[in-house]
Design brief:
Helix 2 (about 40-60) packs across helix 6 (about 180-200). The protein folds into 3 domains: about 10-285, BirA Bifunctional Protein, domain 2, CATH 3.30.930; about 300-415, Anticodon-binding domain (Rossmann fold, 3-Layer(aba) Sandwich); about 425-505, C-terminal domain of ProRS (Translation Initiation Factor IF3, 2-Layer Sandwich). Helix content is about 35%, strand content about 25%. It has an 8-stranded mixed β-sheet with strand order 3-9-10-16-13-12-11-29, with helices on both faces. Strands 20-17-21-22-25 form a 5-stranded mixed β-sheet, sandwiched between helices. The chain has about 500 residues and is of the alpha+beta class. It is built from 14 helices and 30 strands. The protein binds one RNA strand of 77 nucleotides through helix 1, strand 13, helix 10 and helix 11.
RNA sequence: CGGAGCGUAGCUCAGCCUGGUAGAGCAUUAGCUUUGGGAGCUAAGGGCCGUUGGUUCGAAUCCAGCCGCUCCGACCA
């Protein structure tokens, strides 16, 4: 069968790269690990940004912007933070170039007094501002978000999933009490869960990270974890309760209502362009990308079947009217995004381009449709009947009337499929480490998702040992899901009574 | 940074073993034909064969260094 992509999901890593390329999402750049995001990929990010920004503001946060460069001494203030990020930091040491022996090099005379690091995250520089902004308990809570780029010098970059430079939003908040800060941490985790499921149609499991997977400097880290079509987990967003660690390191204090001085409790939380990688690996198929309508830069693409004949004009004006009618409608709270594709290439070529890019509805209009008042359309979420493409012919008025409903159905359908896959692939009958090793250890070609099992929640050296054991199977603890049962079986690592259930899986 | 593989046209790759000045398919451009759907024919454009050096009369081909990419490790809120 002829597919729109020349590699299938059986070779998942190759398939992923093919989708990113053939769906016009992004490409590699001359800078190792840094990507060029192309218009279609950027369009997806803009939709993600716009909707998530609304939700962040709706929960009381305000946007602002902090510098890209952070003085080295700031990073050094929080001990765990330094240790966590030291190995992946880009550092600016000079402010001028000079030609020496015919080579353009950093001018030795222009060395910075104090090196600047390119932010890997902004806790320290935002914390510095917080220490000046917070004076009284009346200044709290301080609820700030910024949309920014950050740099982490990763060993093995992968487009969207782990790039040296990536785009994200990072929320930073300060509170009077630990209770309020924890509440904020969990509130934003829930914002991420709802956003991921309702907007990206990507089901996730929200929960708490084990101690050894915490954000450097955090008291607690929470995550949402999504299951990709190869069974691996993708950490799609994190929310951290930082306690007073950063406040103490950076002197973020306030005068309480009794007149005494208290350290703030702070939080931080973020999601990144990694979400786009998650969408690709959640919804893509062997014909390319399938975009949830809520984030598709174009939800409906109209392809006129032009043949360099006089009736072309009629087809075009028919299409223009169709686009106008559709554009006036509202889906997911926003005007419907429609494109009339008039590019001077073959119509069949256009169709396949939009299939690969994952436009939710592709409408084809030929002279016969125009004459009969019809449209022919394809649903990207339900593209084929066996090998054949499913083309549906409908009266134009009916299509326009039902278009929003169709988009809603596609959104719901993509979510339902992904949700069914997630639910069906969390194995709950593993009761020992040996059974775990047997399940993940042998590669029998079957789909391996995650295991959900009880554990004793060890810490320190004992937890390190558990981590090392899991590592031999390339496994990690993803999180302890928020919804826990009333009673637990025995810990699969120690055989002692369990205290919570955790998800175990391979991860990106 | 360690192990393996790869780098030839926009893309996918052949040629390399056995050195003699560059190929295919798709894509692009032009013309003609075709037209309810990823069309056909003809012609054209496009490559210092990743890079630097070595061996040689001669290197895409053999050798070495470097750079980059992919996979596996290490690393990875």
């Amino acid at each position: 069968m002829q597919r729109a992509l020349n590699v299938s999901r059986e070779r998942f890593a190759d398939w992923y790269q093919a989708v990113v390329r053939d769906a016009d999402m992004a490409e590699t750049s001359p800078v190792r690990g840094a990507m060029v995001i192309k218009p279609w990929g950027w369009g997806v990010w803009e939709q993600i940004q716009a909707e998530l920004d609304r939700r962040i503001k709706a929960t009381g946060h305000e946007n602002c912007y902090f510098p890209l460069f952070i003085p080295l001494s700031f990073i050094a203030k929080e001990a765990e933070h330094v240790e966590g990020f030291a190995k992946e930091m880009a550092v600016v040491t000079h402010h001028r170039l000079k030609t020496i022996d015919g080579k353009l090099v950093p001018d030795p005379e222009a060395k910075l007094e104090e090196p600047l690091v390119v932010r890997p995250t902004s806790e320290t520089i935002i914390g510095d501002a917080f220490s000046r902004w917070v004076r009284s308990h009346r200044d709290l809570p301080l609820l700030i978000n910024q949309w920014a780029n950050v740099v982490r010098w990763e060993m093995r970059p992968r487009l969207f999933l782990r790039t040296t430079e990536f785009l994200w939003q990072e929320g930073h908040t300060a509170h009077a009490t630990a209770g309020e800060a924890v509440e904020e941490t969990l509130k934003m985790l829930e914002v991420y869960r709802a956003f991921s499921e309702d907007v990206l149609a990507m089901p996730v499991i929200a929960g708490e990270k084990p101690e050894n997977e915490r954000f450097p400097g955090a008291v607690n880290t929470y995550s949402i974890e999504a299951m990709m079509q190869d069974g691996k987990a993708l950490q799609a967003g994190t929310s951290h309760f930082l306690g007073t660690h950063f406040a103490e390191a950076q002197n973020i204090k306030f005068q309480n209502d009794a007149g005494g001085m208290d350290f703030c409790n702070t939080t931080s939380w973020g999601v990144s362009t990694r979400l786009i990688g998650g969408v690709i690996m959640t919804h893509g198929d062997d014909d390319g990308l399938r975009l949830p309508p809520a984030i598709a830069p174009r939800q409906i693409v109209v392809v006129p079947m032009l043949r360099d004949k006089p009736e072309d004009a009629e087809v075009l004006s028919y299409c223009e009217n169709l686009v106008k009618a559709l554009s006036g409608m509202t889906a997911f709270g926003q005007p419907v995004r429609v494109l009339l594709d008039t590019k001077q290439i073959k119509s069949a070529e256009k169709r396949w381009n939009w299939v690969r890019r994952g436009a939710p509805l592709i409408v084809e209009v030929g002279p016969r449709d125009a004459a009969g008042g019809n449209v022919t359309y394809m649903r990207r979420d339900d593209l084929r009947d066996g090998d054949k493409i499913k083309s549906i012919v409908k009266p134009r008025v009916d299509f326009v009337e039902g278009a929003v409903q169709l988009l809603t159905e596609i959104q719901a359908g993509l979510y339902a499929d992904a949700k069914a896959r997630l639910d069906a692939n969390i194995k709950r009958d593993i009761t020992s480490f040996d059974a775990l090793a047997a399940y993940f250890g042998e590669d029998d070609g079957s789909f391996k998702g995650w295991v959900r099992a009880p554990w004793g929640k060890p810490s320190g050296a004992e937890l390190e040992a558990v981590g090392a054991k899991l590592k031999t199977l390339k496994l990690t603890i993803r999180n302890a899901p928020g919804d826990q049962p009333a009673e637990f079986g025995t810990c699969i690592f120690s055989g002692n009574p369990g205290v919570e259930e955790i998800l175990i899986g391979r991860a990106y």
